[in-house]
Amino acid sequence: MATNGPLGRKLRMGIVGGGQGSFIGRVHVTAAVLDNRATLVAGAFSSDAARSKASAADYDVPAGRAYGSYTEMFERERWLPEGERIDFVSIATPNHMHFPVAKAALAAGFHVVCDKPLTLTLAEAEELARLVDASRSVFVVTHNYTGYPLVRQAREMILGGELGEIQAVRAEYIQGWLRTRLESEGQKQAAWRTDPARSGAAGCFGDIGTHAYNLGRSMTGLLPDTISAHLKVFVPDRPLDDYGHAVIRYANGALGTVTASQISHGRENDLRIQIDGTLGSLEWRQEEPNQMLVRHNGKPHFLYTRDPNAPFTNDAGRAACRLPSGHPEAFFEAFANVYRAGFDAMAAAITGGSFERVDTIYPNVRDGVEGMYFIEQSVASSNADGAWLPLKHPLARR
Ligand code: NAD
User: Fold this and answer.
1) Side-chain half-sphere of 324: how many Cα atoms within 13 Å?
2) What domains can be seen in the chain, in order of their start residue?
3) Mutation test of ligand 1: which of 28, 53, 93, 194 has the most ligand atoms closer than 8 Å to its C-beta?
């Protein structure tokens, strides 16, 4: 394989968001370049044109390709010679800008990597899915926790039946940074996350509850059936939830729970999942991602470590590792695994080949739609005092 992957050249990336003082845009760029398969060549880094141009130097993007807006970037880039223009766009803006930017990127013929939650509303997400289906574009949604080697290992173990039939999924994502009303102190990340116009129908449940739900769905492959949720606003004068529980009934009879909090003192980024099957159970935590516990009654607990050379590591786990055992891999590498799978599909699309569009290794637009359905049904159920509502969306994978 050529160093730049099957395409034999680097993919050219444009980013929307990631300007000075922002969080996840820099992670996108770092993850995209980790395997030497992409390079950032253009950006509309900020909603403020001057700040966008000022941010370009931080990424070694030439001033001529630092644009004042995403519309200007797409309009200028689409007419550049084929060997120069961007191949794909990464969207790292607050939620309300995902839909207009993604729609415009698809219309300009670019591939898209979009952060979660997919859009502001379910209707927008469904429209995006239709546009993606009608295009030749690859569409990746960065539910990045699916990229961890031991998460991929667990998924292959579960789908292969090693835990038997899955009967219970407990996913929780616990943070504490919004314990106080940080949004009133000029903290930008808190401000848009607690504003319905920029965040969407949910706060905490949209921001991190969707990740927890997606992780359970991705690791087990179980199809959801119905949901009952209770969301709470504990910090006074905050318009969106900062805590919540949901119970999910899966089609096979399994029960799932999602708990998400942004008000738990001292808790940092504790995404944790526990899965119970008839033959065994497993547990994985994002804050200790290179270990996973697998348990069977009457046997010692098995502590799996991230080890590409160990006989207990399966193909999916091995393929997601870059370093030998004992060298911790974490957030950047998992994010890069999502990018890498997307790049394989983009290379196929660019060379006229066929590529999987539904059952992809990377989270795709359908997972994004499912995430938006999870958000909207959680809010609706909570508003109806926990009423059971449907959760099986027609666009769900399988
Ligand atoms: P942020 O506030 O730190 O950064 C947002 C950036 O987008 C800023 O640079 C801002 O100027 C820019 N922006 C806003 N409107 C724009 C526009 N019209 N054109 C160009 N740039 C624009 O936010 P963040 O914490 O980085 O979150 C961004 C997105 O990523 C959100 O959707 C969030 O849910 C998601 N996120 C995902 C993860 C993950 O693990 N996958 C982690 C954090 C955030």
Assistant:
1) 0
2) 5-145+347-360 (3.40.50.720), 147-327+369-390 (3.30.360.10)
3) 93
